[in-house]
Amino acid sequence: MGFNCGIVGLPNVGKSTLFNALTSTAQADAANYPFCTIEPNVGRVPVPDPRLDVLARLSKSPKVIPTVLEIVDIAGLVRGASKGEGLGNQFLGHIRSVDAVLEVLRCFEDPNVTHVEGSVDPLRDAETIETELLLADLDSLERRIDPLRKRANAGDREAKVEAAVMERALAALREGKAARTVKLSAEEVRVFAQFHLLTAKPVLYICNVDENSAAAGNAYSARVAEKAKAEGAGVVIVSAAIEAEVAQLGSVEEKKDFLESLGLGETGLDRVIAAGYALLDLVTFLTTGPKESRAWTAHRGATAPQAAGVIHSDFERGFICAEVIAYDDFVSCGSEQAAKEAGKMRQEGRDYIVQDGDVVHFRFNV
Question: How does residue 82 score in pLDDT terms, banded at 50, 70 and 90?
């Protein structure tokens, strides 16, 4: 699994149209009325990585298995969702399970597409979404803090640590700040994660622009970019209309030619994936052999045993070592055996930090 993200936004911002295009499916009923997406739709799309095809060719792998981006299309949010307005409770429940939040913001004018607030203002829309998530988090913690304080005052050491972290999170939320702004120590991160706060999730703003603004953006998307920069969030400019057209084209060449005619070098999906990986600080490592060539995703900074655990928990539990070849060395040598004979294969232990593009063979014993 690459990463799991939830597409959120107000009704009629192009959220479901974008979901359909990105996943090349018609799972979500994209229509010009609120709440056309009643249940979350899940789409899984392969993460493009040309390195896999090269490895498969060199290793004569019959199967090529890319890592996967999972996209959850969640019912449109409206003002008052934290109090149950619209499909608020369903919305908030579904979003708790994702790794990152993709906020789709309408950055185009179209008199034929109604806006739930009556006008186009992406910053106002972003504030509406963030306020509802913040209020939901505040309500969640305020219901939990008193019982936690009682346990802490009774001498429960673990409760004392949890209460101290929760108090700081509450203070931030009461000031109108997202939970992700709270500074945490390494130990506190583990405690904080147990709160499952909505505003703790990293945010990627997706500016849905008109077709003419797909390459360079427009005044609306420029304002969103300023906001994202100030927050340390990611931002991607996409035209859902263009992505929908690309999804209908058959061959890779057709898609490439169409994008180039519009001054675009890659699809919106590729840009979303790149921004998502950067936002979540992910790396891709690779395995290859006569059966399959496969891509795997780990957090940057993952040790060799942790990366092995991505493949199977037994690999991590019984980790012995990792045999590592840098991708470029593997390709220049032409095979694993040739790389080994050239001294390009390294045997790494438990402390090794896996790098993006490492071609790895894990040795383990359970």
Answer: very low
